[in-house]
Amino acid sequence: MNMKNFFKSWLNNPITDKKLKEFQKNNINKIFDISKDFHRAAQIAYPQTRDIDNDTLILESGHQPNFFPFSGTFKKVFLLHYIYKNLKKMNRNSICIFGFADQNVATASYLYKNHLPSYNRDGCVGVGFPMKGHEWSRFDTITKPPPDRWETEMEKLEKYYFYYASQIRENPQLIRERIQHILDISWNCYNKADKFSDLNAYIFANLCEEIFNDGIFFFRYSDLQKNEVFINEFKSIFINIPIYNQLFNEAIKNYSLDLPFVEKDQVPFWYHCECGSNITLFVKDASVEGQCKSCMEKISFPLKDFEQMREHIYRKISLNAVSRNVIFSEGLGTHLFISGSGGSLAYGKISRDIGIKLGYHIPVTIASISRDYYLGLIQKYAIKMLMHSFDLTTDDLCSKDLNFKIVEKWNELQREIRKKEKMDTVKWKRLRSRAQNIQLDLKIIKKSMCRPYSIIDILICVDIEDLAQFWQAALQDPIIDENDEIMKLVWDVAYQLGEGVHVKPCNLSEIFSKICSLGLDYATKDIDTESAHR
After folding, report:
1. What is the pLDDT of residues 291-333, one digit of tens each?
2. Chain segment 111-144, per-residue pLDDT in tens
3. DSSP code of 139?
4. What are the strands, taking DSSP E only, across 111-215?
5. Rg of the chain in Å (alpha carbons)
6. With contact defined as beta carbons under 8 Å apart, do 31 and 188 qualify?
7. What letter does residue 497 receive in the DSSP assignment?
């Protein structure tokens, strides 16, 4: 199925044909208001507000505000924008909204740091900030890093890429311009933000504005309770807790999910402790109780306060992953939800089952699964080292015999080692050291090229204004899997090779696939260094 057929299938889906209800239109208008506040604070253009009628299609996605996240998070926004533009050509009115889950607890390290490729034993290097003492704090309660710490990290980023640019003799002026553009956006957002969550969200939204221009309404999840959005949906879930939790656990069993079961009286919302952490709540007779695992504070409220979602309760609760899906879908009448490919798939299955059995609205969900293939500075350096270690040519990189050539080179080196071990100790040690270095190089090369990295690494090798073109080209021939409750959209992106390493035209993904599967499994068995030269 291509994207043209996807639109045809989706628009003919009974879910897509569902009309918006008045309460859903009211909720969307409230999100317009809180989105306007976010756009003003982030200093990005606010999309032209469109009239909402019963036939308006709601396109939705979201993510926690990670520090310079992977490209996959940006691709969620791209898909929203892509679908919106195509619907516009069909004269179909649609609204694109993207929310930042800024009330998540900072246990996920990607909230405050990320990784870049590196030619070291780990194949990567961290970029970002430690959260010592804040690991269990909600992200929207943590202040941004101090100016000197922020400046140090930005300078480190700049020096890091200049170093690798010099190693492969990349165009220094081009690299300088791209790095400077990232730093300018980062510093501008740093000066606007007070909270760490806002800092990350502002950077993300500003980058999206440059990539996609307009059309997306960004907002914070933390603003929902402040503006009493979804209050009735919260009430509806709360009074159905026993059946909700039963369905939750049944879904875990049915799908064999690697997730913990919930207790039958467990509340599917977080309560915000004064210490900045989140409290798990339980219904106990005529009260709702819980204890903070961070500061050990115990809390208790009358059950009726929760049933009525009184202001002092509603403003201090937030959603977990499953209840978020259920409440947003019902509260907005979402027609299409763009999910990621990680844990959200498991939570999506649970929320879908709960929604269906409780009679809530269920959107069509697309899981975006996308890999990037590009030769950035570190990838080029890794390939350069691979070619040097195994005497490869650029033609070899595209050859189906790449691994065979590497194994042959390794076996040749092993034969040399065996020859020298009884003749020349100095040469033997030199060859042995070279063999060990080659083994390590191969591991480093595979690690540095075979995992996703922060969007920073792509922006260093690709002009930001060209990203949307690459992504749109990748959508011309995606793989769409409709065999599950959640539709999977597989669309890998290959970027132009650029300078530094010149290979003959071949599938860039094949080069990565070959390198990631390299090994010495069929090589001559290594000799025992302990027994040699006793």
Report:
1. 999 999 999 999 999 999 999 999 999 999 999 999 999 999 9
2. 899 999 999 999 999 999 988 878 789 999 999 9
3. G
4. 113-117, 124-128
5. 26
6. no
7. -
